[in-house]
Amino acid sequence: QAYDSVMVKADVEMGGTDQLFNLLAGRDLMEKMDMEPQIALTMPLLEGTDGVRKMSKSYGNAISLSATAEETAKLIKKSQTDSDRNITFDPDNRPGVSALLTTAALCTGRTEVEIAEEIGDGGSGTLKKYVTQSVNDYLAPIRARREELMQDPAYIADILADGNRRANEIANETLGEVREAMGMVYT
Prior knowledge:
It is a single chain. By secondary structure, the protein is mainly alpha-helical. 57% of the residues lie in helices and 5% in strands. The chain contains 7 helices and 2 strands. It has helices spanning 2-7, 20-32, 69-77, 95-108, 112-119, 123-150, 153-181; strands at 12-16, 39-43. A two-stranded parallel sheet has the order 1-2. Helix 2 links the parallel strand 1 and strand 2 (39-43). Helix 3 (69-77) runs antiparallel to helix 6 (123-150). It starts with a helix and ends in a 6-residue tail after the last helix. The mean pLDDT is 92.
């Protein structure tokens, strides 16, 4: 993965905190190859709806941007919580509840503690309704734009073709550099 940073000539690379080692290894490798090392940015991992593992499509605990409001509501409703009616933010002892509070906080700009205090003794049902509303409100404009774009497949094809063209230009330039460095330029 570190070599990917070299090959794409990354100037900035972003990943989850679980990717910090790879990002730093990329920086080291770039320096060894006399390249300006990339800026490495990390973001905390978002816990999935299971409250245990990072949010991931592979784990089946992610909220997809392509999901409808109803599909999102079903997923959140199935989220793991506990039987304590008093909602508190305690990631170590209440991972499911805390993961939902974090999701709501990211969507509303409020803190997990503020949301927990507002819900109070409302229990997990009230929490899940709050999270569902927060997520769906946050995603509504994104979903609307996605739907709008889906109505114009030619526009999407043009964007993809342009991106493919630009990627090929960069790849061909990089391949030329590799051939030259290896003494494999034949004219």
